[in-house]
Amino acid sequence: RLAGRRYAAVVLAVAAALTVAGCGQAGQGAPVAPRSMFVGSEAFGQNILPRTYTCHGERVSPPLDWSGAPADTKSLAVVVDDSSAPITPYIYWLVFDIQPGTTDIQEGALPTGAKQAMNSMGTMKYDPPCPSGHSHWYRFTVYALNRQLTLPNGAPLLKVWTEIANATIGRGRIVVLGFP
Length: 180
Description:
This protein is of the alpha+beta class. The strands form 3 sheets. Strands 3-11-10-6-7-9 form a 6-stranded mixed β-sheet. A 3-stranded antiparallel β-sheet has the order 4-5-8, with no helix packed on it. It has a two-stranded antiparallel sheet with strand order 1-2. The chain has helices at 2-20, 157-167; strands at residues 25-26, 30-31, 35-36, 38-40, 64-67, 75-82, 90-98, 104-105, 115-116, 136-145, 168-178. The protein is globular, with a radius of gyration of 16 Å. Mean pLDDT is 86; it is low at 1-28. It has 2 helices and 11 strands; from the N terminus they run αββββββββββαβ. The termini are far apart. Helices cover 17% and strands 31% of the residues.
């Protein structure tokens, strides 16, 4: 019962962090709207998540590319989530401390020097989406940050989310549909 309350508290805290993620800080901590970025993938034809990148396929992370990060970007982060999951948001993958000049992630790989946070499953890796029963919309979001997070590999999800929310200066997203 106590574990259930703790879990609910963590879910609420992550939801709160998601709400503010993208409202970076400027000057004396005043919120600023993040600059829009483009995010795409050669793998997502017609905004469909191919089975290869789900639990029904090869279970590998898809390739992503982006552009439009602000000139003062110090690091990037990538978050894959399902905002329509029964427990929202469900985080499948969170990659951070990506070098600022990086413009893509290759299939099944991490950029050099990038780190992974714990995901909602409690693992430090790409947890492939597993749509069942009905289709789901999955969000692949790239955040441009005003600093490196300098958290360890395997850092807790909530800690990384909070740091991303406080450092975001740019954001782009592609939303794709996954089928059971």
